[in-house]
Amino acid sequence: MSEPRLDIRVKMAFNHNKTTPSRRAIGKALFFYIEKPRKLAYTYEVRSSEEIGAPFPERPHKHIALRYAQPPNGCTKMEPLDDQVVLLIERGDCSFILKARMASAAGAQFAIITDSAAGTDDWIEMIGDGLNQKSDIPVAYLPGISGRRIREHLLYGGEVITVTIPLNYSSLLLSDVPRKPPWELW
């Protein structure tokens, strides 16, 4: 009996037991830290995709606003941004490349794509559309379990979210490293 084929647009790498996504093949591990609000002040792991966007900078960008994309799926022209902003964009409806390019055109410094509708801790490998196109901003994937909490705060919480991205562990004291969110698997 053959295994079911995976949709070519959503290529996931699995470990030996075929149930848990393997982090080895799904982008470069990076971290960002939510500075405020306090209830979300944790370190979040994301996976970058240099096939979709530019490499992340080596030095962290601090105190950058994290906003929810308008429209949320990022498939059409987005509202222009007036500051340095990290955009949270929902997965689905169009290619990762289009989402990243729309975020860049709106003025975003970084794009984080998530699947908050699914709300799982699965990792998705963001692959190109085969046309060798890239965005000029860094792009990363955040599992939906954290994406959902961040999205809910952005839609209903009121307080602005500010982040440090990417988080550079080599320049921090161990006691200063914020912990991962309690709802994420370790």
From TrEMBL:
- A Pfam short name: PA
Annotated ranges, domain PA:
71-144
Give the record's keywords alphabetically: Glycoprotein, Signal
Query: Per its UniProt entry, which superkingdom is the organism in?
Result: Eukaryota
Keyword Cell cycle attributed? no
InterPro entries on file: PA_domain
In its UniProt entry, what is this protein called? PRADC1-like protein (inferred by orthology to a D. melanogaster protein)
